[in-house]
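The records we work with from here on pair a chain with its fold. Taken together, the tokens spell out the fold as the letters spell out the chain. To see the layout at work, look at the sequence and tokens printed below.
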Amino acid sequence: MTSISPGVYLSPMTAPRSWMSLTATLFLRGLVNPRLALDLSKAAWAFRRRSWWARAPFLPLPDTEYLRWRMYTAYADEAAVPPVEDVIRFARWRRETMGL
């Protein structure tokens, strides 16, 4: 467990409370580990919405409905935010099994 202040501990498997906190945590982990940054970048690119350049906000973000379906099938909750370690394991698994 990691202490952030006296008496307050975070479990490494604690799910982030928002997609922004998940993104920020993964970004920081990627800064420390370049191989992980590459794995995460490739996984994020694979999840991008089709024809993302044709619709606002013109960013390669995942389709909301697809992401909700993925969270429902993985966590039985459409609004779930996956734990950081799950995302990291998925990105590494993707590289190892798909040879990416």
Strands lie at 2-5, 8-10. Residues 15-98 form one domain.
